């Protein structure tokens, strides 16, 4: 998977770029006759990593460890992957549009506390 340093940013552009390249490589393999049986994204959620603890993030969803309820927030990569799976056109303008609709975790925390 694509590791990122854990922070409160939901805009994980490097993971989106990694997924685009990875899926492109799978498509190339299929076109060249490889018998690809499946594809999986690692990982759905940011989890504890043996070597990095909670300082790294692999997930499509950010887990807010500072909140006792442990809310999950979709990152840019989650929105991108969902858009891709629904057959959406994936290009740089779509990435910018998806990113422009995201807030930071700090903004989302303040929205949660106002409920």
Give the overall form. globular
Order of helices and strands: EHEEEHHH
Number of helices: 4
Structural class: mainly alpha
Widest sheet: strand ordering? 1-2
Beta-strand content estimate: 5-15%
Helical amount: 40-55%
Distance between the termini: 35 Å
Number of strands: 4
Rg, nearest Å: 16 Å
Number of domains: 1
- Report the sheet with the most strands, covering strand number, pairing sense and barrel closure: 2 strands, antiparallel
**Low-pLDDT segments:** none
Mean pLDDT across every amino acid position:
80
Family: Belongs to the glycosyl hydrolase 1 family.
Pfam family, one: Glyco_hydro_1
Protein name: Beta-glucosidase
GO molecular function, one term: beta-glucosidase activity
């Amino acid at each position: 998977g694509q590791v990122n340093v854990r922070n409160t940013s939901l805009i994980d552009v490097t993971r989106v770029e990694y997924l685009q390249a990875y899926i492109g490589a799978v498509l190339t393999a299929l076109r060249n006759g490889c018998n690809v049986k499946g594809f999986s994204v690692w990982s759905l959620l940011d989890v504890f990593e043996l070597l990095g603890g909670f300082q790294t993030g692999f997930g499509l969803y950010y887990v807010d460890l500072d909140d006792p309820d442990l809310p999950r927030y979709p990152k840019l990569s989650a929105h991108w992957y969902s858009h891709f799976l629904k057959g959406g056109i994936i290009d740089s303008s779509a990435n910018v549009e998806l990113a422009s609709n995201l807030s930071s975790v700090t903004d989302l925390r303040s929205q949660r506390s106002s409920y």
